[in-house]
Amino acid sequence: MNEIVPNSMRGGLVELHAVFFILGYVIQAWVGFGFYFWTSGGINNTWRPPLAIQCGWALLCLIALLWVPESPRWLVMQGRADEAQALLNRLHSDPSDPNKEFARAEFFQIEKQIQIDKRLGSSWWHIIKKPSYRKRALIGMATCGFIQSSGDLVINSEFSICRRLLF
Length: 167
Description:
Helix content is 73%, strand content 0%. The chain is mainly alpha-helical. It has a domain at 1-68. It is extended, with a radius of gyration of 23 Å.
């Protein structure tokens, strides 16, 4: 989303992503709750239908990947600049921009950023060695750790345990 979505749509799509993330938790909770009472498959097989549902969504995403375009930045890094330009033109086609100025500006920015990145060190050693890179890496790792430790999964698990004790 960061690379191919126009600024005017980016915030809304991030919010939509969050809504679907929470919707996934809600569906997971109800599926788990529903199959807790499923007795026709046997008590030892109640884990199979929720797992099959999870596999179905993953398979759907895998099939959908056939229609997802490559990243314009990756295409430029691979020396396929013409394909990247065509992709940006297609992604940012707008009747109010017949000369595709926005797509050309973004392509120029991508090319210049890749040229700058090639001059800078980008190995794992540079991330550890350079203080500003190290700070960014630590902030990113800490953010992921805090998200995983936020408590929503604990609350969800406690609900499961309480449900089993009550029913």
